[in-house]
Amino acid sequence: MRSNKLFTRSALAAFGLVLLASGTPVYHAAEPAETPGPNDRVVPILQEPRHRTMHVDGDIRLLDVQINPGDMTLFHTHDAAIMYTFISSGSGPSGGRLSSNTDYVKEHYTHQVANNGPHLFRIIALTNYGPAMGELDSDRPDGLSGEPELENLYFRSYRMTLAPGETSPMQTHHNPSVVVQVSDGLTHVTREDGITAELTAMGSWAWRTPHSPYQIKNMGSAPVEVVINEARRAM
After folding, report:
1. Which tens digits make up the pLDDT trace of 105-119?
2. What is the SS3 assignment for 13?
3. What is the pLDDT of residue 29?
4. Distance (Å, rounded) from C-alpha 197 to C-alpha 187?
5. 5-128 has which fold?
6. Residue 194: is it exposed, middle or buried by C-beta count within 10 angstroms (0-12/13-18/19+)?
7. Is 154 helix (H, G, I), strand (E, B) or coil?
8. What is the CATH architecture assignment of 150-231?
9. Is the model's pTM score more than 0.70?
10. Count of alpha carbons within 13 angstroms of residue 72, beta-carbon side
11. Cα–Cα distance for residue pair 42/22, rounded to 1 Å
């Protein structure tokens, strides 16, 4: 897994987007972004209108990023570690591909993104404005087997495919976590006390607080895939 600003630019371009620096289209760009022009408006990422804040938990933000076909973001500045779950690109579903960039903590990055494809571009993102953890695997959850698909000092993610009617083991995370459905289907995310969140489509999500056991059940007639993303912070 690469975690740097050049990866973010090329990855987004590969998903049917055009990244623009000073008004010039850049396809599969590999060079650092240029400075926006004097007439370009630049905003922090949390104030960019297509990066909608859906949930706040201390230093952590859950963002639903949606760019319609033919639309373009404002120039916006990344100033914190971020994790991306790609729901759909300009060319269609993305299967919940994951990536993360932690370099933004020390090197802020300003860019603009345009969707030149025929479909909605959508990402469910986590930003973490807290400090990095000291150890990579010190706070892994209870109840999940296997290695995480993504793990760094700010985030961790597990991917799970459930057969029709299948229920996951009860799991307890020591960090805030969000369950994101990344395929079609119907999923229930149920706390130990029985309170249930229903996920009905790709991009549906359910937030869970630390130390709150929950399990995930596929309520549909076809396999369903979810990712379980953690924003790591000191306990």
Report:
1. 999 999 999 999 999
2. helix
3. 26
4. 8
5. Jelly Rolls (2.60.120)
6. exposed
7. coil
8. Sandwich (2.60)
9. yes
10. 15
11. 11
